Amino acid sequence: MCSPLSLSRIEHTRRATHTEHEFMSWSPSPGEAVPPVAVRQLRQEQRLSKQVHPHSSPAPRRRRGTRELLGEMDGIDVLLQQLSVFKRHNPSTAEEQEMMENLFDSLCSCLMLPANRDRFLKGEGLQLMNLMLREKKMSRTSALKVLDHGMTGPEGTDNCHKFVDILGLRTVFPLFMKTPKKMKKAGLSEKEHEEHVSSIISSMLRNLKAQQRSRLLSKFTENDCEKVDRLMELHFTYLEAVQQADKRIEGEKHEMVRRGEILDDGLEDEFYLRRLDAGLFVLQLICYIMVEISNSGIAQLHQRVHQILNLRGGSLKVVRHIMREYAESIGDGKATEFKEAEKKRIMDLLENF
Q1: Is the CB of residue 103 less than 8 Å from the CB of residue 117?
Q2: b vs e for 152-168, b when ≥16 Cβ sit within 10 Å of the residue's Cβ?
Q3: N or C: which end of the chain has fewer CB within 10 A?
Q4: Whole-model pTM?
Q5: 161 Cβ contact list (under 8 Å, min separation 6)
Q6: Contacts of 138 (CB under 8 A, 6+ apart)
Q7: How many Cβ atoms are within 10 Å of 253's Cβ, its own excluded?
Q8: Among candidates 84, 112, 113, 86, which has minimal Cα distance to 97?
Q9: How many angstroms separate the Cα of 46 from the Cα of each of 12, 59, 248?
Q10: Using CA atoms, how far apart are residues 313 and 310, in angstroms rounded to an integer?
């Protein structure tokens, strides 16, 4: 049986082939936008990239080649230079807004290649994205997505440390506490916003060391642990949504079995996508943050998480189940040794949760 989303990934790879030819033919120059067809495909790819195992096929290799080429020809710097126009000014026309979104999506795609994250760091991309978040212009929604892509995984470690050094915690935690109304108006749903912010925080918890990690954890103790309260609020919100989706899916499966229909891999992939749409990935990120801060050695955080779980009838067993499913799904093209080590690390965290 194929792993979750694998067939969807294969289909996406097939559809992306034409996009790669168009995207490869683009050579960045000031004021030039990325082809719209490429952008539509890249948007679909971004979330899937966090969830699935890439398959060994020509299309993924071509995508990697595209990103390598853009990085080698200083494409990251060009994208950042073009986007800097929007740090304090909103696009004045619909065409200019589309160009801005195209540039952001292209940057997100490029950051899937580890070497480009280093170029992004050296090009002061973190400073630009952080400034965009503070300026509260239309570019803020996309800047949040770029930070998510740039800081995720072990290759995002240097970016995570730099983000703390440039006082990024002061920027991202207000966005964690509340979804700004302008985010919704700009086309980013509440779930997408909470996914990106939760992903950024979880990446920092995984990657930060020493003083930077202490600064991050101290944020959760501020103002009588208000950020832990917000974290737990999100946990119960997404848990309910995913449980409702699971209940509907199980009912459909039962009915299909009763009719003698076969539950093939395609249907299992479809059901998994529906769970993701309901908020499964956000729930996994939130549970990961809960487990990390509970293992931080700060008794105040451990006690607050467990206190709220008990008060609201939550279950440690449910959290552990969610995290085990998350650990099993880890696999973004890394070596087997890394995947096994990361899985063990998460399971060890659960031992002390």
Answers
A1: no
A2: bbebbbbbbbbbbeeeb
A3: N
A4: 0.82
A5: 207, 208, 209, 212
A6: 86, 90, 91, 97, 100, 182, 186
A7: 15
A8: 86
A9: 11, 15, 27
A10: 5
Residue 35 to residues 110, 183, 290, Cα–Cα distance (Å): 15, 25, 41
Nearest Cα neighbor of 322 from 294, 352, 350, 293 is: 350
For the chain, domains (ranges, CATH) are: 6-208 (1.25.10.10), 218-351 (no CATH)
Residue with tokens 């795609």, as numbered in its chain: 109
pLDDT tens across the length of the chain (353 residues):
333 333 333 333 333 333 334 444 444 444 444 444 444 444 444 443 443 333 334 455 555 677 888 888 888 999 999 999 999 999 999 999 999 999 999 999 999 999 999 999 999 999 999 999 999 899 999 999 999 999 999 999 999 999 999 999 999 999 999 988 766 556 678 999 999 999 999 999 999 999 999 999 999 999 999 999 999 999 999 999 999 999 999 999 999 888 888 888 888 889 999 999 999 999 999 999 999 999 999 999 999 999 999 999 999 999 999 999 999 888 655 568 888 889 999 999 999 88
Q: How far is it, in rounded angstroms, from Cα 163 to Cα 160? A: 5
Distance from C-alpha of 335 to C-alpha of 294, rounded to nearest angstrom: 29
Distance from first CA to last CA of the chain, Å, rounded?
32
Residue type (1 letter), 279: G
Structure tokens at 200: 């950024």
